[in-house]
Amino acid sequence: MKSVALLIPLGLVALGAASALPAFAQSTTAPVYAPAPPPPGMHDPGVKPAAKPASTLPAMHDAGQPRDAHGEAPPEVRVRKQGDETVQEYARNGQVYMIVVTPKVGPAQTYMVDANGKYHSAVGPEPVKPVMYKVVEWGKAKPPEETETPPSNGGH
Hints:
Helix content is about 15%, strand content about 20%. By secondary structure, it is an alpha+beta fold. Strands 1-2-3-4-5 form a 5-stranded antiparallel β-sheet, with no helix packed on it. The chain starts with a helix and ends in a 35-residue tail after the last strand.
């Protein structure tokens, strides 16, 4: 039994050593590569381009007026100080469509101007107005209950 118990660990050691042999069998000499070509000169023309490009892009020119993604001209922005606040008016085609009021302390207030000239706060959609029902009320006296009175038939 002892000899079998010794053979198993010795067999494992021999197996480990045999699997490590290919790693030890590698060459210690470095591979030999061909020498690299010298770098091109500073004014070397390099490869000559083809006679004519395969396709040409359309000529891109600036019309002089910058445009946004929708093709519209940028807004006119008028900035003025009003007390401690800075007021920015955004207009397009002479029509004011947005006003931003930035106080000295606190967040900026943005107002959108509709077609009728009314200002609307641009903080988001209108808040939801839930329906309120009175279920219970405290602190008030109950209204008097109505009792049915028999109709009078004129003394008859």
